[in-house]
Each structure stands twice: as structure tokens, then as C-alpha cells.
Write a structure and sequence with these properties.
alpha/beta; Nucleotidyltransferase, domain 5; 5-stranded mixed sheet; elongated
């Protein structure tokens, strides 16, 4: 009596190599990508001799040396900025606003904006500065 062997099933395709590729792509884009909104114009923050680490979260307002304003990377007018901030405050009363002003920006552009933000109900306004090198 001759017994027949069962045919072996075809080996299943493994997706381990695909998972590795996806993982490497994820790490690559996390390292290369920028996690913060960038202004549509160049900003060189002022240098500070004292300060704390920049807190995370919130929205970013950029002020160029010539007075242009951007909200989270999109150019806006001051009125549109305040309207957008007021709408955001309805859903998030603890909104933090980070102001990334150019070191050459005039205080006449910065101080009225900070005052208007505080009057709109923003409790936490942070000015971004560059640490002074030792």
C-alpha cells in the first residue's frame, strides 16, 4: 500500500518587511518634518540673556520686521487674527499664544497686539526669544 503525502500549502507572504519599511518612513518624516507652524516670511527672534524653555502647544503668531502678521503660518491682518483667536477661545479658554517676533520688529507693532490679545481673553502670551550663547 502506497500512501500519498498531502501537498504542502504555499508559504504565506509575510508583511514583516513591509512593516519595517513603513516604520523607517515614519521615523524619517518625523525627523525631517517640522512640527511647528512656520511663518511665510523670515523671522530672527531677539536674543535673551534670561528665559525659560518654550512651552508646547497653543497657537503661533509671527510678526515680521516690517509689521506683517501670520497666524500658524498663514498671513493675516490684525483684525482677522483677533477674530480667529476669539473663535478659538470659545472652545479652548486656556489657549496659549506664542508670539514669534523678528528681533528688528518695532514695539509699536508688538505691544498693541499683546494688549489686544489680553483684552480678547488670552491668559497666556509667550514671547519667543533666542537664548544668548554662553
Amino acid at each position: 500500500m502506497k500512501l500519498k503525502r498531502r501537498p504542502r500549502p504555499a508559504p504565506q507572504e509575510t508583511i514583516v518587511s513591509l512593516i519595517d519599511v513603513i516604520f523607517f518612513l515614519l521615523v524619517f518624516f518625523m525627523l525631517v518634518g517640522r512640527m511647528d507652524a512656520t511663518a511665510p516670511f523670515e523671522i530672527l527672534p531677539p536674543v535673551s540673556t534670561a528665559g525659560e524653555s518654550l512651552p508646547k502647544g497653543g497657537t503661533t503668531v509671527a510678526i515680521a520686521a516690517d509689521g506683517q502678521i501670520a497666524l500658524d503660518g498663514a498671513p493675516v491682518s490684525q483684525a482677522a487674527l483677533l477674530t480667529s483667536i476669539a473663535e478659538t477661545l470659545v472652545n479652548n479658554a486656556a489657549l496659549r499664544v506664542r508670539i514669534n517676533a523678528d528681533g528688528e520688529a518695532r514695539l509699536t507693532n508688538l505691544l498693541p497686539l499683546v494688549t489686544a490679545l489680553e483684552q480678547a481673553g488670552v491668559r497666556d502670551v509667550v514671547l519667543v526669544v533666542t537664548p544668548n550663547p554662553p
